[in-house]
Design goal:
The protein is of the alpha+beta class. It folds into two domains: 232 residues, 2-Layer Sandwich (Nucleotidyltransferase, domain 5); 222 residues, Nucleotidyltransferase, domain 5, CATH 3.30.420.40. 39% of the residues lie in helices and 20% in strands. The protein contains 19 helices and 21 strands. The strands form seven sheets. Strands 17-18-16-15-19-20-21 form a seven-stranded mixed beta sheet, sandwiched between helices. Strands 3-2-1-6 form a four-stranded mixed beta sheet. Helix 2 packs across helix 4 and helix 10 packs across helix 17. It is globular and about 60 Å long. Belongs to the FGGY kinase family. It comes from Streptomyces glaucosporus. This is Rhamnulokinase family protein.
C-alpha cells in the first residue's frame, strides 16, 4: 500500500449513465471527503438503419471535456488518479490495429429478441445459472454475442472491451477487463471470480477477445501524452480500476452503518435492489426468483434483482413532451402525492416495459389487462408508476432476505431516486422498514473512494470507507407509515 500523502488528494470520477455522463472531482484525505461536479453531458443513443446505437465518440468527447474541467477544479491543477464506471453488458469491438469496428449497440436494441429460447437450446437455464449466477436478461453480453455471431464486425474483431474499459483504453492505450463489469456478461463464475470457460465453450464465445481481468484498485495505465495535451494536464496521471459497473461503485458508496444489516436500492434508469453477500446464491429457487449474483468491491457479491426503475417515469415524461404537454416533474409529483394510493399497480419488472416509446399507453394497457382502473391523467399515471416501483422494491428486498438468509434492518436508497421524496417514502411504507436516502452520487463516491484507497489517501475496508462517507454526507430518513395490508393486497394483484 502507498504511504499516506501529506494532504488531501483530488480524484476524477468518470460516471457514465444511460441518459447522461458526468465527471466529478473528489477530494479525499484523513477526515475529508468532498465531491463536486466538474462537467455533465448528455448521453443520446442514436437509431440508424433499424439499429439502436450508443454515440460512444460523443461520450468520449464528454469525458475529455470533463477531465479538462476536473483539472481546472482540482487544487494546483493536479489529479491523483482517474476512475471510470458506466452501465453494464454493452461493448465495443476493436480490430487488430485497435480501431473501433462501429458504434456499440444499445442493450435496448431488439437484436436479442428470443435470447432465452436460443440460450436454452444450448444449455439448460438451471445449468447456466448454476455456472454464472446471473439472472436472465435478454441483453446480457452472452446473448448479445450470440445475436452477433456471423456478423462482419464480430468476425473481424480481435478485442472486445466493455464500455468503461473502452474509454480507459482510449485514455491509456492499455486494454483490460474490470471484474465487476465482467461479472454482468454471463461469462464469469461468481465463486471464483474467473471466466466460466465451460459456458463460453458451449456458446462458442472466444474468451481471448477479452483482455486480462482487473479488480477494483488495480492500476489501469496512465493518461497518454496526447490525452494530457488535449485536456491541459501535466503527467503522469494514473488511471485506476474501480468498480467499473456503476452499480458496483454505487453499492460501495452506500453509507451503511456496519452495525446494522442493510439492503440497498441503487436507483436511476434501473432500480437494483438487493443485499451484499460474501458468497453467491446459486440455488434453483434463486434462479426462479430472477435474482442475480454480480461481483462487487473487495470480493463482495451484489445479490440483487433488476427492476425497470425510473425509466418508466422518464419515458412517460418523454411521451407527454412529444404530445406537447410540457409536463413539470415537480407539479406531477405533487399531483401524484394527492392521487389515490395503490389505485392501480403494474409489474415494474415486466420486460414488456424494456423498449422505449408510448409508456403512458403501455402502463394503461397493463392496468386494463389486470382488471384495474386505468389512470385518468398524468398525475395518476405517475402515482401508478411510483406505487409500482415501491411495490417492486418491497418484493425484491423481501425475496433477497428469504433467499439469502440475510435479514435486514434498514434499506439504503442511493442514486438519482433519492431526489424523489415521494418514491423514498413509498418504499419505506411498502417495505415496512426505515429508508435512508442518499447520496444521489453514490456511484461517483464509490468510484472516488476506491481510487483514494489505492493511492493511500484513505485506509481500511469497505466499512471504513462507508464510515467516512456517512460522516461527510447529509442523509434523509423515512420511517414506514400507512396501511401495510394495502401493500399486501397490491402485491397479490401483481403475483396473481
Amino acid at each position: 500500500m502507498s504511504p499516506s500523502p501529506p494532504g488531501p488528494l483530488s480524484f476524477a470520477a468518470v460516471d457514465l449513465g444511460a441518459s447522461s455522463g458526468r465527471v466529478m472531482v473528489g477530494t479525499v484525505g484523513p477526515g475529508t471527503l468532498e465531491l463536486r461536479e466538474a462537467h455533465r453531458f448528455p448521453n443520446r443513443p442514436v437509431r440508424a438503419a433499424g439499429t439502436l446505437y450508443w454515440d460512444v465518440l460523443g461520450l468520449y468527447r464528454g469525458v475529455l471535456d470533463g477531465l479538462r474541467a476536473a483539472g481546472r477544479a482540482a487544487p494546483k491543477g493536479r489529479l491523483a488518479s482517474v476512475g471510470i464506471d458506466s452501465w453494464a453488458v454493452d461493448y465495443g469491438l476493436l480490430d487488430a490495429s485497435g480501431a473501433l469496428l462501429g458504434n456499440p449497440v444499445h442493450y435496448r436494441d431488439g437484436r436479442t429478441g428470443g435470447a432465452a429460447e436460443r440460450a436454452a437450446a444450448v444449455m439448460p437455464p438451471e445449468e447456466l445459472y448454476a455456472a454464472t449466477g446471473l439472472q436472465h436478461q435478454p441483453f446480457n453480453t452472452l446473448h448479445q454475442l450470440t445475436a452477433a455471431r456471423g456478423t462482419p464486425a464480430l468476425s473481424a474483431a480481435r478485442r472486445l472491451l466493455l464500455i468503461p474499459d473502452l474509454i480507459a483504453y482510449w485514455l491509456t492505450g492499455e486494454p483490460g477487463t474490470e471484474l465487476t463489469n465482467a461479472s454482468t456478461t454471463q461469462l464469469v463464475d461468481p465463486r471464483t471470480g474467473d471466466w466460466a470457460r465451460d459456458v463460453a465453450d458451449a456458446f462458442g464465445v472466444d474468451l481471448s477477445l477479452f483482455p486480462p481481468l482487473r479488480r477494483p484498485g488495480d492500476p489501469a495505465g496512465e493518461l497518454l501524452d496526447e490525452v494530457l495535451e488535449e485536456i491541459g494536464l501535466a503527467g503522469p496521471v494514473p488511471v485506476t480500476a474501480v468498480g467499473s459497473h456503476d452499480t458496483a461503485s454505487a453499492v460501495a458508496g452506500v453509507p451503511a452503518d456496519g452495525g446494522r444489516a442493510f439492503a440497498y436500492i441503487a436507483t436511476g434508469t434501473w432500480s437494483l435492489a438487493g443485499v451484499e453477500l460474501d458468497a453467491p446464491v446459486l440455488t434453483e429457487e434463486s434462479r426462479r426468483a430472477n435474482f442475480t449474483n454480480e461481483l462487487g468491491v473487495d470480493g463482495t457479491v451484489r445479490y440483487l434483482r433488476n427492476i425497470m426503475g425510473l425509466w418508466l417515469l422518464q419515458e412517460c415524461l418523454r411521451a407527454w413532451e412529444a404530445d406537447g404537454l410540457r409536463p413539470d416533474l415537480g407539479t406531477l409529483l405533487r399531483e401524484a402525492a394527492k392521487a389515490p394510493a395503490l389505485r392501480s399497480v403494474v409489474d415494474a419488472g415486466d420486460p414488456g416495459f424494456l423498449a422505449p416509446g408510448r409508456m403512458p399507453e403501455r402502463v394503461a394497457e397493463a392496468c386494463r389487462r389486470t382488471g384495474q382502473p386505468v389512470p385518468r391523467d398524468p398525475g395518476e399515471t405517475v402515482r401508478c408508476v411510483l406505487d409500482s416501483l415501491a411495490l417492486a422494491h418491497r418484493r425484491a428486498v423481501a425475496d433477497a432476505q428469504r433467499l439469502s438468509g440475510r435479514e435486514v434492518e434498514v434499506v439504503h436508497v442511493v442514486g438519482g431516486g433519492v431526489h424523489n421524496e415521494l418514491l423514498c417514502q413509498l418504499t419505506a411504507d411498502a417495505c415496512g422498514l426505515p429508508v435512508v436516502a442518499g447520496p444521489a452520487e453514490a456511484a461517483a463516491f464509490g468510484n472516488v473512494l476506491v481510487q483514494a484507497r489505492a493511492a493511500g489517501a484513505v485506509r481500511g475496508d469497505l466499512a471504513a470507507l462507508r464510515s467516512l462517507l456517512r460522516a461527510a454526507q447529509p442523509l434523509r430518513h423515512h420511517e414506514p407509515m400507512g396501511d401495510r395490508e394495502a401493500w399486501r393486497r397490491a402485491e397479490a394483484v401483481i403475483c396473481a
